[in-house]
């Protein structure tokens, strides 16, 4: 339209021998440039006003072959990645350097939306596809492809200000998703609210006490003791009542008691928007991590947890804010022994007639620090302690003893096998009396719990 407007003004100027200054004001140029256009009009006519690059492709334009390759790769190899992540994957694995905005232009031309497309974009594309679907010349396959392209509208999470200090609030949650392979698994994750740094992550088959213990262990070892954990109302963290839970099933009590000994406050909420930081993190991870795990050839939980260790470092480098350690409220890291004993699983048992306790369908005898057997009367109350590193102890009264598995059969016969001199056993480590996992102190904590008190009334 600009070119046609210039043409009409110069044409009228020449035909009527009009005022060049008035024409210059209308066109927003100088009289000298008007003279050039008059000479060009007399020499070439209307063709003079057509831009020289009209119909030419820019020198930096991608070829049709490359554009087709970008579309095909997204639909096959990298399907589900958001466009920023897809740009990074193309640069890393395909040698194609392209901006996310260009990817958006190319894929939107094919009506392929990003998983992170906003509500307005989804509605606009949906209307375009519905209009196209009404076309009488459209084949059945094209109509099915359009139906697959229409994405359901999702509600967004509201934002809130970040905490002021690193370690002031750690948001924890787990997400059931097809992260790798053909079976869904649970990714337990913890993110610092102040910096957005992932401070712990662990894959497991279910959302369990074990998964959250592993995440808390990573936080304690790498950073220290945080001020607060903000979670949802899972039975690991909080519940009102549960039908006759045993001490082993009462994961809320065990996780809560461990946090109490470390001085960590637990805050829970049933509203997902209240802990929007970790909910938004799962959106990002569900978009990026499955592709990364697939490209790394991950097929098992062990491989996934190993891959997760270095992936978290890369993720934090790219997305998290820089950590200001002067504004950290993490307390000093506990010793490894204290962490192993604090993140423990407990089970109430009674001494049997063979002076043993049964745990996980195995019998164990009680021993002291010098590996000498200790015998208690039948029916004596005992508290079995399975430490985070799988070491087993038992608390009887106010003292802690070691547990030694009782074999079903002797490995060698004293009468028929030559018995070699057995090496002298090293002195067994037993937790000190000051350790919190004592039967009396744990029992006192149980009696204060509201969900247990309501059952005894």
UniProtKB/TrEMBL annotation:
InterPro entries: Homeodomain-like_sf, Integrase_cat-core, ISNCY_transpos, RNaseH-like_sf, RNaseH_sf. It comes from the Bacteria. Residues 157-342 form the Integrase catalytic domain. GO terms for molecular function: nucleic acid binding. One of its GO terms (biological process) is DNA integration. PANTHER family: INTEGRASE PROTEIN, TRANSPOSASE RV3428C-RELATED. This is Integrase core domain protein. It comes from Clostridium ljungdahlii. The lineage of its organism: Bacteria, Bacillati, Bacillota, Clostridia, Eubacteriales.
